[in-house]
Amino acid sequence: MTALAAVVLCAGKGTRMKSEKAKVLHPILGRPICAYPLNRALELGASSVVPVVGHQAEAVEKTIRAFFPDAPLHFALQREQRGTADAVRSAEEALKGYSGRVLILYGDVPLLRRETLQALLAAHDKAGGALALVSTVLEDPTGYGRVIREGGKVARIVEHKDATPEQRAVRECNAGIYSVDADFLWKALAQIKPANAQGEYYLTDLVEMAAKQGPVGSVGSVEADATETAGVNDKVELAARARVLQQRINEAHMRAGVSIQDPATAYIEEGVIIGTDTEVGPSVTLSSGTIIGKGVTIGQGSVITASTVADGTVIKPYSVLEEAKVGERNVIGPFARLRPGTELAEDVHLGNFVETKKAQIGKGSKANHLTYLGDAKIGAGCNVGAGTITCNYDGVNKHVTELGDGVFIGSDTQLVAPVKVGDGAYVGAGTTVTKNVPPGSLAVSRTPQVTKEGWVAAKKARKASKVQAG
Ligand code: UD1
Ligand code: MG
User: Which of 284, 307, 356, 447 could disulfide-link to 321, CB 3.0 to 4.6 Å?
Assistant: First the structure.
């Protein structure tokens, strides 16, 4: 296999977005636009990926690095936007010493599919020349570079502004996606001159140069409407691309055996894994890094980020999970909030208005109502009563609360950490636990109840006599 590197053009400003934020950083289905083409290049095994940055270079680089912390990225800076050839040329230094294929992609084209790029590389192999490109046949080709063929073979690309009326009638358009041999690329780029209507360095000039040396490979975009290779220029287009992406992802899950009640309102980001027979309710968001098992039910309005949910678990409506690990056959929510570091074993039940953070909870334990469990280690078979709070923060440091197995915590208990409750112990309702409770014992801290019989009638009588006197 020929070596592969990629250059992804991310230097543009995106004036029509009317935003302080660089165009390629606008989110589409939970990640920046440019994360999609970058991901495609990495998926294909590119040994080096060069994002060419320019407008808001620092912010764009920072976001991309945060998104792909372990990827072989080498950033290049294009100081001035002098055209697509100039943009690619600024990547030469970053790819010094590399020989093989260079995939050239635009950072503002989020819908481009892996299959199309694989077809492009195959077309490059098959033609055997220095370059291959992706073309799309458009109803209205206005603005695009036209693919000019001679005897059926790609001869050159002519930009709309430079085209003759005859050339403008051609509907096969250049998508701006190429595979180019590195040695040819750098030599040819050095020869390109801005002798055209826009006074720009056109990357498309490469095509004629390559065609003079040998056959140029070409592949049509596989999707009929060519939205696959369409960029994002304004926020209307951003929303339109997001819709296509959402539908594409949801359909793939449904074909793989996931039930999605209302695909129009299910937002499942790229890379989320979902098992068969899982049911996704309306208005559910599943963010990247999430893995859902088989036969899971995810209730309406739930938002799950970077979490794992094992087989058979039921997440009732409006629950929010963030960096949580949920075991098999749990029942969570409605309105539960599982924050980072939550680790639940099998058969755990967490009910409405229960919040957990850095909490490990053992098999079969339950906290069904109005509870905060933070920095907690809870054994198996525990029952945590309504309104229980772990007081984990003393104003300076966080401390751990530990419950053994089979512990019963009465309602409205405060566990002032650091504190331990041993196996099988009971804590009476309303207790403030400040000292460790040994296994098998009962801890109660409430003041003894005082009952004054007939007190209400006596009080009324006192009040009545005061009124008479007054
Ligand atoms: C380009 C192609 C055209 C093709 C079209 C497909 C050229 C000369 N023309 O035209 O044949 O049909 O794409 O969409 O290549 N960019 C930089 N630095 C620059 C210039 C551009 O980073 O100096 C980036 C832009 O941010 C954008 C991409 O490159 O993401 C394309 O640039 P743009 O000027 O929009 O190209 P088009 O005129 O659309
Ligand atoms: Mg342009």
Answer: 307
The answer to whether residue 162 scores a pLDDT higher than 70 is: yes
pLDDT tens column, 354-366: 999 999 999 999 9
Contact 388, 405 (CB under 8 A): no
Neighbours of 13 (CB within 10 A): 14
Catalytic (active site) residue 369: yes
Token reading at 199: 């006074």
What is the set of domains in the chain, with CATH numbers?
4-229 (3.90.550.10), 257-443 (2.160.10.10)
**In this structure, which ligand is nearest to the CA of 194?**
1
Q: How far apart are CA 30 and CA 45, in angstroms?
A: 23
pTM strictly above 0.90:
yes
Taking 3-state DSSP, the helix, strand and coil percentages for the chain, each rounded to the nearest 5, stand at: 25, 30, 45
Ligand 1 touching residue 364 (CB < 6 A): no
Q: What's the DSSP call for residue 402?
A: E
Distance in angstroms (rounded) separating the CA atoms of residues 102 and 333:
50
Candidate of 15, 55, 75, 84 to mutate for ligand 1, largest count of ligand atoms within 8 Å of Cβ: 84
Element (H, E) at 151: none
Are 91 and 52 in contact, with CB atoms under 8 Å apart? yes
Predicted confidence (pLDDT) per residue in 429-467, tens digit: 999 999 999 999 999 998 899 999 999 999 999 999 988
The finding on whether 182 has its CB within 6 A of some atom of ligand 1 is: no
The pair of structure tokens assigned to 39 is 């991901």
3-state DSSP call for residue 96?
coil
| Ligand 1 pocket, residue 426 CB under 6 Å | no
Cite the DSSP H helix spans in 46-113: 57-67, 84-89
Which of the residues 55, 74, 160, 369 is marked catalytic? 369
Strands 432-433 and 419-421: unpaired
> Smallest Cα–Cα separation from 49: which of 61, 59, 58, 31?
61
- Which strand (E) or helix (H) includes residue 245? helix 235-255
The pLDDT score that the predictor gives to residue 412 is 98
Q: What is the pLDDT of residue 468?
A: 82
pLDDT at 225: 66
Mean pLDDT of 6-11: 98
Ligand 1 binding pocket includes 192 (Cβ within 6 Å): no
